[in-house]
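Thread: Newbie trying to understand structure tokens

Hi all, I'm a second-year student working on a class project, and my supervisor (Dr. K.) asked me to get a predicted structure for one chain before our next meeting. I've only ever worked with sequences, so writing a 3D structure as a token string is new to me. If someone could post the tokens and maybe explain what I'm looking at, I'd be very grateful. Here's the chain:
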Amino acid sequence: MPDLRIKRFGNVAEISLKLPWEMAELLVDVALPVLQELAESPELKAKRERRDEAHRQAETAERVKRTQEQLAKNISLGRRIDRFLRQYFREAQAKGRNISRPILKSEALKAWRGQFGGTIDQAEYCISRFRSDLKKRIKARRAREIFRCMNRGLSNAEIGKRYGYHPVTISKILGKERKRRRTARRGGK
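---
Reply by user tm_fold:
Sure, no problem. This is what the structure looks like when written as tokens:
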């Protein structure tokens, strides 16, 4: 039996054989064209494409996960900064400082930066992410409450009066909520 060594380098393998000279010539003459034909075969190409596609999907899933984690961190930081700003505004009011809100916000962000680091742009970005997320959650909660009122038998006009919306707006909110619930029931997003 000839001496055989296989070295693997990622997706490539190097095969070393110690053979008698005549046998090596025969192997090159006969087996090399077969190996080249095999490398170009549709089955091998399809297998390689499936492996590449699985790798791409795994990378995409990892990238999405990292993005969601970073977004959650930004929203959490925005929540803390927003609380800090509100506290700063309350303290300024309690001290009787009569300064315009944008100037007070600028002072508060500088105070935040002095205590916790980071840039003002980063802080403003995190606050905007937090507030947009908060608006989405409030809107979703209100839609659920409106849907519950509809299930209790209230008319669109009665629900609208309770929440300060026009009955047509209530109808649109209920339609979107029904669609969201149907999609969620089927397992979609």
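A couple of things are worth pointing out once you decode it. The mean pLDDT is 86. The chain has six helices and two strands. Feel free to ask follow-ups in this thread.
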